[in-house]
Design brief:
Layout lengths: L1 E7 L2 E6 L4 E6 L1 H9 L7 E7 L4 H9 L3 E6 L4 E7 L6 E7 L6 H4 L4 E7 L8 H8 L3 E5 L5 E4 L2 E4 L5 H4 L5 E5 H8 L4 H10 L4 E5 L5 E4 L4 E4 L1 E2 L10 H14 L4 H16 L9 H10 L2 E2 L12
Helix pairs in contact: 1-8, 6-7, 8-9, 9-10
Protein name: Carbohydrate kinase PfkB domain-containing protein
Pfam families: PfkB
Keywords: Kinase, Transferase
């Protein structure tokens, strides 16, 4: 029985920023695994799917102590991410897709929390979500469910069957654009309440440099953003946030403590290219010394649709 299991594709990523262009592995599975490997007090496993040609990334993770199981796939997911000066905005294309995950391949894994790192709408079927909920708490990132690929271009779409799927999801992360797409509400309070009413037990709304809000049906926890020394690369920040949050929740931390830990992890990650490479001590130091940004500017009490 693992404490935490991430299920998701390792991708090929082309990351274009105003400063440079980088080719590297990516995806929730990649960023989550490389972040959590820095914590030696949790039992973690990864289930991924990728083409044989990319198995070197799995070998690298295994060499660094990560337990990895691989579902064979004809192709790997190939993303192109283009960022402007504002790192909160990006343009995406998908140049190849991998096979979706199946119940048959997931039958043997046992964990307390399963994080479904969806990248595209068909990565996890409703049947897979329902099945995983019989085995442990399900966590999901909404971003993949809201991406449809047509002619290699990524288009925003609604989450088909969301009201049924969300009944089985304990933790759900969405950013400010995704919460509007999911609920139709543009304010945090109404969107979070709607997602909770649909069944999510802990709703995490990330707001970039404005911090984040977590709602558990009783309390809105306003989590500050910590100011980075320099904004270098925002790719994988949402995955890093969820790594920190689920790690802390799996270890028994409260919601606010877990949220602040996750926010500090994201700040450290954004200061460098590639996945999070700090330590727990770095995270605690960030929480204690970094400037908190805009904690009190997030309005959660003015519902409108």
């Amino acid at each position: 029985m693992h404490d935490l299991c991430c299920i998701g594709h390792i991708t090929l990523d082309k990351i274009v920023t105003p400063k440079n262009t980088v080719h590297m592995a990516g995806g929730t599975a990649f960023y989550f695994s490389h972040a959590i490997k820095h914590f030696n007090d949790i039992d973690y496993t990864l289930i991924t799917a990728l083409a044989e040609s990319e198995m070197k990334e799995v070998d690298r993770l295994r060499s660094e102590g990560i337990d990895v199981a691989v579902m064979p796939s004809k192709h790997s997911v190939y993303f192109e991410n283009i960022y402007g000066e504002n790192q909160d905005n990006r343009t995406q294309r998908v140049l190849a897709k991998a096979d979706p995950f199946t119940i048959d391949y997931l039958k043997e894994v046992e964990a307390k929390i399963f994080h479904l790192g969806s990248l595209l709408a068909d990565d996890f079927s409703l049947d897979v979500v329902k099945y995983m909920a019989t085995k442990g708490f399900v966590s999901a990132d909404s971003q993949g469910y809201l991406r449809e690929v047509r002619d290699k271009n990524v288009y925003a779409t609604d989450w088909i069957g969301k009201e049924e799927a969300l009944k089985y999801i304990h933790f759900l992360k969405a950013n400010e654009l995704e919460m509007v797409a999911l609920t139709g509400y543009s304010d945090v309070a109404s969107a979070a309440k709607q997602l909770y009413d649909w069944g999510v037990k802990e709703v995490l709304i990330t707001l970039g440099s404005l911090g984040s809000v977590i709602y558990d049906g009783d309390t809105f926890y306003k989590i500050p953003a910590y100011k980075p020394r320099e904004v270098v690369d925002a790719t994988g920040c949402g995955d890093t946030y969820m790594t920190g949050y689920l790690y802390q929740r799996a270890k028994g931390a409260g919601i606010e403590e877990a949220g602040r830990f996750a926010a500090a992890m994201s700040t450290i990650k954004i200061e460098a290219s590639g996945p999070f490479s700090g330590s727990k001590e770095d995270i605690i130091r960030c929480m204690e010394t970094a400037e908190q940004r805009y904690e009190d500017t997030v309005c959660i009490n003015s519902p409108h649709k």
